[in-house]
Amino acid sequence: MDLEVEMGGNESSRMTTASDKKRDAKASQYMHWAKTRSHARFNLATSGLANLKLQELQLSLADLEITGDSGYGYQPLIGLLADRFRVDPTCVVTAAGTTFANHLALAALINPGDEILLESPAYEPLLALAQYLGANVKRFQRRFEDDWCVSAAEIERNLSPRTRLIVITNFHNPSGVLTDEQTMMEVGELAAKRNARVLVDEVYLEMLFADTPQTAFHLGEQFVVTSSLTKAFGLSGLRCGWILAEPGLAKSMWLLNDLFAATPVHAGERLSVVALKQLTAIGERAQSRLDKHREMLNQFLDSRDDLETVRPAQGSIMFPRVKAESSEGLCNLLREKYETSVVPGRFFEQPPHFRIGMGGETESFTEGLNRLGRALDELK
Ligand SMILES: Cc1ncc(COP(=O)(O)O)c(C=O)c1O
Question: Which string of b and e fits 61-71 if b means at least 16 CB within 10 Å?
C-alpha cells in the first residue's frame, strides 16, 4: 500500500523534520518509510537482528494451541517475564511488540493536553504516538558533542510544573548509546519531585544479553518500561512485547487494552513461551554476531575521515555524521546505485546523520559496508 498521497506529497516535499507541527499525527512517517522504502539487497537500515526462522526454534505442535485463557495475560508467559525481570506478575502487561506496549503505556499515562518531555533526537513513532494521543510534547536535547548522553541537568532545565512524563529510549535510538543506572536514578528523582513518571523504552537494552536483564523498573515506582523480543533476538514476527509498571498502573493498561485489542493471538503467546525458554542460546548467537560486526564497523569507521561517529561498545546501531548539511545525497546514491539502505537522519531530526544497523547476516553486512565505502568515495 502506497500512502504517499495521504501523507502529503513526494519524498522531497516530505523532507520536514519529525517535529514539524503540521505533520499528520495519525501516521508515522518513519514506519511508513521503513515498510515501503528501506528494503534493499544490502540492508543496513534494519536496527535489529536478522529474523530468526521457525525451524531454528525447538518446537513441537503440542506446544501450540489456537485458543487459551489469556483475557488479562497468558499466565505462563506473564510468569516467565516476571521471573526474567524479578518482578511480581501483577506488574507485567503483555502487548503486541514494543510498539503496542508504548501505545498502551502512553495512553494510560497521559491525557490529551498533558505536557511530556521527550528526548531529541527521538525514535519518530514514539513522538508521533505522543502527538496522536494529544500530548503537549516538549523536548530535551541529547547532543552529538556530548556523546548523545542523557543529561539530568538538561532534563531539569526543561521540566515545568506541568510535566507529567519524561520519555527516554535505552539504548538510545538512533545513536545506540546506553544510559547508565546512576543517570537514570537522577532522572527518576527529578520526576518523583514533580509527581511525574518516566517511560523508558528498553527494547535495545536486551542487547546486553544478560540472563537477569538490567531494567529501570527497579529504580522506583515512577518508572514504567517497555520492551520486546524484537531487536535482540530476531523475533519481531512474534510481537512478544511487554510493559513493566506498578500494579495499579498495570491494571489500568489491561483495562485500556479491552478497548484496543481485547485478547492477543494465543498461538503467538504460546510461541513466545517457547522462545523465552530458549532465549539464552538465541542471545548467545546474536551477541557473537553483533560483536563481530561492531568490530568490522569500527574498522570501517577508522578508515573514513568523512564520517564522525559516537561509537557505543554495545548494541546494533550507530549514527554517523557526514560532513554535509544532509545525508540525503548519500542515502539516495547508496540505494539507487549501490542497492544498499541506511536510515536517513531526517527521520531522527538530524539530517547530517544516518543510522546504520549491524544485525544482518554477515555476508550481506560485509558487502553493505563495502558499498557504503564506495558511495562515500564517489561523493568526495
Ligand atoms: C525505540 C524503539 N521502540 C520500539 C520499536 C518497535 O519495536 P517492536 O518491533 O517490538 O514493536 C523500535 C523499532 O525500531 C524502536 O527502535
Answer: eeeeeeebebe
- Ligand 1 centre to CA of 99 (Å) is 6
Beta strand extents in the chain (DSSP E only)? 42-43, 92-96, 115-120, 136-141, 163-169, 197-201, 223-228, 240-244, 307-308, 317-318, 321-322, 340-341, 343-344, 354-357
9: left (phi over 0), alpha (psi -120 to 50) or beta: left
DSSP 197: E
Report the amino acid identity of residue 372: L
The CA distance from 54 to 44, in Å, is: 23
Cα 303 to averaged position of ligand 1 atoms, centre (Å): 31
Q: What pLDDT digit, counting tens, does each position of 157-205 carry? A: 999 999 999 999 999 999 999 999 999 999 999 999 999 999 999 999 9
Q: How far does residue 30's CA lie from ligand 1's centre (Å)? A: 11
Give the Cα separation of 131 and 109 in Å (integer): 14
Residue 63 has φ and ψ, to the nearest 5°, of -75, -15
Ligand 1 atom nearest to 47, measured from its CA: 14
Measured in Å, residue 56 CA sits from the centre of ligand 1 at 23
Nearest atom of ligand 1 to the alpha carbon of 101: 11
**Residue holding cell 510493559?**
243
pLDDT tens digits, one per residue of 250-306: 999 999 999 999 999 999 999 999 999 999 999 999 999 999 999 999 999 999 999
**CB within 6 Å of ligand 1 — which residues?**
47, 97-99, 123, 169, 173, 201, 203, 228, 230, 236, 241
Give the atom of ligand 1 at the shortest distance from the alpha carbon of 34.
Answer: 14
- Please, which residues have CB within 8 angstroms of residue 55's CB and are 6 or more apart in sequence? none
pTM over cut 0.90: yes
Which residues lie closer than 8 Å to 187 by C-beta, 6 or more apart? 150, 152, 155, 166, 168, 198
Distance (angstroms) between ligand 1 centre and the Cα of 274 equals: 21
